[in-house]
Specification:
With 783 residues, the chain is α/β, with parallel strands linked by helices. The chain is built from 27 helices and 21 strands. The protein has a 7-stranded parallel β-sheet with strand order 1-5-7-8-9-10-11. Strands 16-18-19-20-21 form a 5-stranded parallel β-sheet. Strands 12-15-17 form a 3-stranded mixed β-sheet. Helix 1 runs antiparallel to helix 2, helix 17 runs antiparallel to helix 18 (483-504) and helix 26 packs across helix 27 (762-780). It is globular. Mean pLDDT is 94; it is low at 1-5.
Amino acid sequence: MTDMSTALPPGTILGYPRIGPNRELKRAVESFWAGRTDAGELEAQAAALRSRARARLAELGLSRTGGAIPETFSFYDQVLDAAVTVGALPRRFDGLTGLDAYFAAARGTSGDAGERAPLEMTKWFDTNYHYLVPEIGPGTAFTLDASRLVAEVTEARAEGYETRPVVVGPVTFLLLAKPDDDAPAGFSPLSRLADLLPVYAGLLRELREAGATWVQLDESGLVADHLTDTADVTPEAVHAAVAEAYRALATELDETQRPAILLQASYGDLGAALPAVATTDVEAVALDLVRGSLPDGPVAGLESKTLVAGVVDGRNIWRADLSAKLDLLDRARSLGAADVVVGTSTSLQHVPHDVAAERWQDEQLDANLHAWLAFADQKGAEVAVLARALAEGREAVADEVRASSDAVASRRDAAGVRVDAVRARTAALSRHDFERGEHDARVAEQASRLSLPPLPTTTIGSFPQTVDIRRARAAHAKGELATEAYEQAMRDEIARVVALQEELGLDVLVHGEAERNDMVQYFAELLDGFAVTSNGWVQSYGSRCTRPSILWGDVSRPEPMTVRWTTYAQSLTEKPLKGMLTGPVTIMAWSFVRDDVPLAETANQLGLALRDEIADLEAAGIAVVQVDEPALRELLPLRKADQGTYLNWSVGSFRLATAGVRPDTQVHTHLCYSEFGEVIGAIDHLDADVTSIEAARSRMEILPELRDEGFGRGVGPGVYDIHSPRVPSAEEVVELLELAVKTVDPALLWVNPDCGLKTRGYAEVTPSLEHLVAAAREVRATL
């Protein structure tokens, strides 16, 4: 084992936001993509962001030495980074090097650059972060490229920091991967572990030579049953893989050959995998003590290790109750570890940078929210305070503990946190509030009302948010554009979008959502119980950042939110036009949700608010209403034992929102970028009439599962991957639709993109939709 004199400092974090406090990385990367800057300038901007992050974390109280500060920078995604490091990019990217290969794997290429589909994208555990799925087959030739990680360690040392490089661990990397196109049926990427381990061993050697004293290997795949308890990969096989991997990395390499290893498993409870982890020869183990549990007593193997106790929540933004966290740290000492270090439960990439940068729309909430919240920087400071308490005793941080207790009490007692009328309404719900009429009878009435052709075409909801739209919204927010002029600009854009859809020949139209800044924030600004941030950006994927709203109190709808925009758009066309709403689970998943009431209560409050909105849309003559729930799978608990309760309340909140409609009103929902096979039963129980799902990158792989489950509702498998700038040809869309009609009854099929079009430009969207409509007509003619 590595020399234990290389001890971790008393406080650390598992990762830090990499986008920059003002989204500097987003702008730098997009400028590079657009050809306005070159690779050298992009690298220089990235180095400046890393330098700032190190300095800020040291300022907050983390040690500059001993590996307390992690190196978690990425241009796009940490799993893609690992794939590049171990040489596991698919062969279609051969011939490309450096950032060209990296971004091609993330975004695909087309035109003069050649047609290369990007890696598939899906959700990172139960978060709203998306990772790129490695493709591993029997012939994947693993080769080490440690240059970027080594350069970051060297860069940090030149600035006076002894940082801790972070890499996705070998077991989790393979668990997250999918078989490549050449793999035989039943192939498991985990079977390639023995071939991958020498590459990881080489990486550790190079990091040691560069001066790294610690390395963090992220093995969060161990906490997720959908990765570790399948037909191909059993828990026993995963535990054996952990033992094999860390025997090769921690035991067979001596102290001159590698840094000390911190093995961390965030996002849940290690459960039965903990003994397998604890008995390896790694120097430190990090446990998530926010989503995971604390074992009852000593754990064999920990007596020779440092325990990084993840007591500070890395995923939500509420200020820690420091007194309670110190109690939890005291209990963590009972596990018998050689040392206990304070840590975050996960990387802080899931929270914004700094509460101090915020200004709230509601002045009355301003002082309260600043006191109640902790973003990444505040969490770093909380870790430092708790570490000081461990080292010097609670009395050394008495003032900080008292301030946190006062903030917790202030939040509990604030007006709006509990609203009796809202609680009374949810308490009065009965099972009839969650039920619609028979599905077959609804189908007939909707077909008569809508008169749609086979394979009807539509989009998911949003159209491109142009520069003019964003400028008008910004000018209106600053008071530089009068409300009347702003709303006229939005009406003009809606009219343009409706006219374009008519010209393209789409069958069911949308209004394009020009007036919406974000599919959750728009509703958060109109519902009681929410606050929105001014600069609370969090990375969703690549350069895509979102500002999660803050759900702090009981939720209600003061007035209609979408009716006037939707009815105006419907007045411009004879075709049916969808009312567009974001579902209760997605509003919760893409917000920072209160932690002081059961999630089911908040979900029902949101369900009732949306039920009221749908009733108003229906009364205004809208025949189709789409309630998007792309996050339904996202919040699914990682342990199967917890999933039934979640699916009961999450599906129930959707049904509560939609069950009040007439039989001839068609209810759609949309889900994207998740592993839907795990929640097919729940999708059916939503009782929506039509469900659109992401399917283009995976080439319709979900459809056989839907067929095998007997899914008998309308389904729109996406045929246009909107997360890539590629324009799919009509022939490509025809090929996907032909796959679809071979698997699903054509009477149930809809034709649509994978997701909303907000992030794309019209230069891509218009030809893509032209090809989508042409392909639908071609396949329709063969039915």
